[in-house]
Amino acid sequence: MSSASKGKKHRLIKSFGFAFTGIRTAILSERNMKIHLCITIIVIFASIGLSISMIEWLFVILAIGGMLSLEMLNSAIERVVDLVTEEYHPLAKQGKDIAAGAVLIYAMMSVMIGLIIFLPKLFHLFF
Ligand SMILES: Nc1ncnc2c1ncn2[C@@H]1O[C@H](COP(=O)(O)OP(=O)(O)OP(=O)(O)O)[C@@H](O)[C@H]1O
After folding, report:
1. Where are the alpha helices (DSSP H) in the chain?
2. Which of 27, 90, 99, 119 is deepest in the core (most CB within 10 A)?
3. Residue bearing the CA closest to ligand 1, atom 16
């Protein structure tokens, strides 16, 4: 292997390392991430327990993955805004509020997906 491609591989491994550090930091420092992870575990167990279909799994995976990723992006935006200014600034407020709004939209979509998939199954189970 040439030293150029060795260097590229090393950089790639380092980037993965940074990404995993980011995930770890978000989980350890963000309360919302801990809540999302708890919900994720419950949803995965419910999905297995209720034997959801392949297509339903795809939607569940999209909802979970999208939610966790978006929550992390929101946290990243909050940190960058705090880095730029600790003073009150209307643009800082807009930046944080818009990012929070994006999370809220995806969370509502995820809840809708969850209701569509799980409600009929739970109804069948109990009635
Ligand atoms: N520098 C600032 N200038 C103006 N408004 C700000 C600023 N920092 C925060 N805010 C406002 O205060 C709200 C709360 O900010 P904060 O940084 O505590 O985020 P949060 O939404 O509470 O985050 P968390 O997810 O950590 O609970 C923001 O959504 C924004 O409306």
Report:
1. 3-29, 31-49, 54-84, 90-126
2. 99
3. 78
